[in-house]
Amino acid sequence: MRQNKKWYEYLWIASLTYLLLGFFNILFAWLGLLCFFIPLLISIIKGNKAYCNKFCGRGQLFSLVGGRFGLSRKKEVPKWMKSKYFRYGFLAFFLTMFLLMLWNTYLVFAGTKNLHMAVTLLWTFKLPWHWAYHGTLFSDGVAQFAFGFYSVMLTSTVLGFLTMILFKPRSWCVYCPMGTMTQLICKVKSKS
């Protein structure tokens, strides 16, 4: 018999809510920074991957949809996807795309580039997202960051769902850039 669930076992609701809120108002994309900083802080302070193992709402969402709802083939993840070359290569690529997003945000803040009201899916496909932006009291750069960050979060979610369907439910966790970064932090901390 299963005991009562812990509060953090419902964090998949936060991940799903985040995606829905960004669909209706892109400025909610800023909330995604919590998914960026909290795992890093936990790994720096505690020296472990507690976020990945317990608190990651996205991983929980993949477990729920792929496991309980059976939308996963439950196949083993290929060895090349588990390799450090792929994981570190994907992390480098992801960080490059993140830095490019920050650069575009800076250009909008500086006034040398206009706001692009589009979400870029898989770093390639520009999806018009104009209905989700209604203006802000702040610079258009605030919205540019939101469009860029939501693009990153949506792309990683789509990749997670694709690998969830093809392989095990939490296959995204094998090459998740945040997981790779927290693992690197934990390795450095364990040596110090």
Can you describe this structure?
By secondary structure, the chain is mainly alpha-helical. 64% of the residues lie in helices and 4% in strands. Strands 1-2 form a two-stranded antiparallel ribbon. Helix 6 packs antiparallel against helix 7 (140-166). The N and C termini lie far apart (42 Å). The model has no long low-confidence stretch (mean pLDDT 93).
Helix content: 55-70%
Q: How many individual β-strands?
A: 2
Q: Which spans have pLDDT < 50 for at least 5 consecutive residues? A: none
User: What order do the SSEs take from the amino end to the carboxyl end, as H and E?
Assistant: HHHHHHEEHHH
Termini distance?
42 Å
As a whole number of angstroms, the C-alpha radius of gyration is 18 Å
> Quick one: overall form?
globular
Per DSSP, the total helix count is: 9
Structural class: mainly alpha
* Strand percent estimate: under 5%
The neighbouring-strand order within the major sheet is 1-2
Question: How can the largest sheet be summarized?
Answer: 2 strands, antiparallel
**Average pLDDT reading:** 93
